[in-house]
Every structure is written in C-alpha cells, then in structure tokens.
C-alpha cells in the first residue's frame, strides 16, 4: 500500500481564498482585521513561522502588527508589549510565538494576553473553555488537524486515535478537541513516560505524531490502513524532518507529511481565528461602526 497524501498546503490555499472573501466583506463594513505577533529572540524556526504568518496576512488582506524583541528582553519589557497589543484597537488578535527563550515564563506571558484577543487559543481561560466545551478560539494546530481529517472524509467518530506528545500547543488540546461529542473519537495520549509506545500505535486507526523526534514512528508500529499525521518538525542539516519514518507510507492509507501537511493548516487556522473575531465584533457593532478598528 502507498499512502495518499493529506495535502495541507492545498487545503490551506482553499481556506485562505474563502477568508479573502470574508475580509473583503468586512472591508465593505469599514473593518480591517489585524494580526499581531510577538517574536522574542532569533530562533530560525520561529522566525520562519512568524514570517509565514505575515505573508499569509498579506495574501488575505489582514493587517500585520509585528513586534520583534531581543532574546535579552526583560519580563517587564515583554509585559509592556503585551499590554500595548491588548490596548491597540488595530489589533484584532495576536500571538506570542513559542518557544520563548530561556528565562522567560511562557505561561505567564500567555496569561497576560487579553483572552478576547488570544488568536492562538492558548490563554488559560480559553483552554478552560475548551475543557468545558464552551465557545472560544481554538488552538491552531489541533484545529488544523481536525479540519484536515474532516475535509478529506476521514471518520473521527468511534475512531481510536493515538496522539504522541502532551504539549500545550498540540497534544493536550488535540485530545480535548477529538473527544468532544461532535468529534467523538477515543484518544490515547502517549508521552515520554509511556512504556511501550508501539503497543498503542499498533492498535490505532489514526496516529498523530507530535514528539519532535525525527523518524520516531516506523512502518512496523502502524496498523495497515491507518491514517498518520506528522506534526513534529525538526530542522536538520539535510532539511526538515518529521516524526514519521518513510516506511510509514508503505503501511498507512493516508499520511499528512512534513512539510506540506499540518504546518500550512496551523497558519490557516490562525487567520481563521482572527477573521472570526473580526466578524463577531463587526456584527455586534453593526456596519460602518464609528468605533475605532477592531
Ligand atoms: N504561539 C505559537 N507558537 C507555536 C505554535 C503555535 O501554534 N502558536 N506552533 C508551533 C510552530 N508553528 C506555529 O507557530 C508553525 C509550525 C510550522 C508551520 C509551517 O508552515 N510549516 C511548514 C514548513 C515551514 C518551513 O519551511 O519552515 C510545513 O510544515 O509545511 C507553521 C507554523 C510552535 N510554536
């Protein structure tokens, strides 16, 4: 068997085309959505991801507000930038790019974001709403994974899903999303304390690998016909490497690859979160509101 590709790049392009129309409709009401990003330090991966987010904004007509700070920034200076974006009426929503350099407390920074402007859905209030099943912006990678599976006709209801990785941006919130009544999957969350990862992956209908360990999942760990989603991106001298070994493609029915799978979907979901908030605010304020931008 050679797996079919879950093409996140193509699906993200379709989603961005739809968002472009929605941004045009907002513009007709006098509203320009704005995405802010806070990038601290010079991690090459983070710089590339943030640059990609702003390229996407330009494509769909969302305004960009890019804040760049040196790795030596103090906690107080970072807090000031976050407070500034909270107060900026041109900023509909924003993100603090993770990971932050050592010495800066990520949870503290995320907790200072105005939950209404939390374009990443990573503020504790919004993660709490996800637990409770209340409406809130959803974390971008988990939302992108569910969308990629759903739009390719992959059934989630009743599926056994094995998620590898318990991080706050992917594994944990993905488990919460997949176990909502609307998705109805059964989730096993594996992590560095899991004694026998293969014992869990071998019985799974869907495997989501978000460990950041190149080649961790090999073909012999996959049930024939399973769907495999690669989330781990590691930068090596030879280029980007995912968590799925090449042998997985001979066993799986579908594979979401690195690059071109979940990454572009993560970015498309970030734009979606921003546009959704702009639309919600526009509908509250009514057309051609005299209030400042949102
Ligand atoms: N504040 C956040 N920080 C981080 C998040 C997040 O959702 N919010 N997730 C990851 C990184 N990430 C988003 O920021 C991200 C990762 C990958 C891609 C992407 O487009 N990947 C491409 C390859 C890009 C390349 O060539 O480097 C792909 O897979 O095709 C976008 C966003 C950690 N931090």
In words, what does this structure look like?
By secondary structure, the chain is of the alpha/beta class. The protein folds into 2 domains: 30-114, Rossmann fold (3-Layer(aba) Sandwich), CATH 3.40.50.10860; 140-263, NAD(P)-binding Rossmann-like Domain (Rossmann fold, 3-Layer(aba) Sandwich). The protein is 39% helix and 16% strand. The protein has 9 helices and 11 strands. The chain has helices at residues 8-28, 44-60, 75-87, 106-112, 124-132, 140-150, 171-178, 197-201, 262-285, and strands at 4-5, 34-40, 63-69, 93-96, 160-164, 186-190, 206-209, 227-230, 234-236, 239-241, 254-256. The strands form 3 sheets. It has a 6-stranded parallel β-sheet with strand order 1-11-8-7-5-6. Helix 1 (8-28) runs parallel beside helix 9 (262-285) and helix 6 (140-150) crosses helix 7. The longest helix has 24 residues, at 262-285. The protein is globular, with a radius of gyration of 19 Å. Residues 288-294 have low confidence and may be disordered. The ligand Nc1nc2c(c(=O)[nH]1)N[C@@H](CN(C=O)c1ccc(C(=O)N[C@@H](CCC(=O)O)C(=O)O)cc1)CN2 binds next to helix 2, strand 4, helix 6 and helix 9.
């Amino acid at each position: 068997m050679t797996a079919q590709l879950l093409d996140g790049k193509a699906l993200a392009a379709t989603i961005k085309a739809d968002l472009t129309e929605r941004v045009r409709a907002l513009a007709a009401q006098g509203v320009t959505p704005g995405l802010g990003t806070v990038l601290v330090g010079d991690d090459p991966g983070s710089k590339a991801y943030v640059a990609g987010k702003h390229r996407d904004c330009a494509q769909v007509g969302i305004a960009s507000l890019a804040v760049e700070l040196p790795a030596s920034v103090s906690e107080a200076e970072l807090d000031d930038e976050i407070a500034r974006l909270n107060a900026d009426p041109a900023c509909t929503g924003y993100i603090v790019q993770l990971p932050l350099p050592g010495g800066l407390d990520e949870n503290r920074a995320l907790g200072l974001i105005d939950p209404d402007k939390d374009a990443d859905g990573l503020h504790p209030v919004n993660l709490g709403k996800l637990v409770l099943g209340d409406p809130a912006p959803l974390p971008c990678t988990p939302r992108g994974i569910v969308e990629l599976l759903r739009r390719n006709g992959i059934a989630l209801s009743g599926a056994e899903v094995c998620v590898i990785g318990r991080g706050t941006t992917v594994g944990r919130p993905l488990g919460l999303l997949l176990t909502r009544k609307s998705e109805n999957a059964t989730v096993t969350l594996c992590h560095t304390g899991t004694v026998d990862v293969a014992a869990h992956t071998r019985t799974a209908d869907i495997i989501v690998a978000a460990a950041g360990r190149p080649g961790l999942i090999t073909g012999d760990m996959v049930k024939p016909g399973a769907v495999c989603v690669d989330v781990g991106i590691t930068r090596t001298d030879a280029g980007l490497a995912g968590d799925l070994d090449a042998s997985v493609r001979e066993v799986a029915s579908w594979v979401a690859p690195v690059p071109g799978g979940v990454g572009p979907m993560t970015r498309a979901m970030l734009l979606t979160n921003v546009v959704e908030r702009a639309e919600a605010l526009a509908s509250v304020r009514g057309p051609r509101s005299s209030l400042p931008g949102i």
